[in-house]
Amino acid sequence: xxxxxxxxxxxxxxxxxxxxxxxxRATLAxxxxxxxxxxxxxxxxxxxxxxxxxxxxxxxxxxEMDGSSVLTELRTRPDTYHIPVIMLTAFGDEKTIxxxxxxxxxxxxxxxxxxAELVARVQAKIDRPPVPNGIQRGNRPAELVNEVVFxxxxxxxxxxxxxxxxxxxxxxxxxxx
Length: 177
Hints:
By secondary structure, the protein is an alpha/beta fold. The protein contains 6 helices and 5 strands, in the order βαβαβαβαβαα. It has helices at 18-30, 41-50, 67-76, 94-103, 115-127, 147-164; strands spanning 10-14, 34-38, 55-58, 85-89, 107-110. The chain has a 5-stranded parallel β-sheet with strand order 2-1-3-4-5, sandwiched between helices.
């Protein structure tokens, strides 16, 4: 029996250059990740709708829809705003980096990139995903969660159940003095 926490973490790599995708897929698969790929922004959003990844590596310059637009879309969706996104692009100027970080990117790697750095940054984001504003727990001492956190946990549990083809469970308590 495979528990949800023991499954391979899913990385979505989005780039219009097949050679880059081959390198990313091979590198991260050796590290134990499941890697799915997309060659355009629209394809990326389509795949995110089908398989909710644990992290996204996202190029900026792509056909149909650029990476900055994909990032903006991801950050507006309740089911994807929490997914860590690392921009992986040839654009290394301060203006572009700043723009994408302001749009919600969690990290930024410029091409050409080092394999060890890519692996380290991906692993760091998987191990320590971001906690967006408004998601912090409502009452830490009592471990009560706010509505946003509750909805996110229900969404994640449903997705885990679908991925693993198993039933899931979310417990709540509604009591007052």
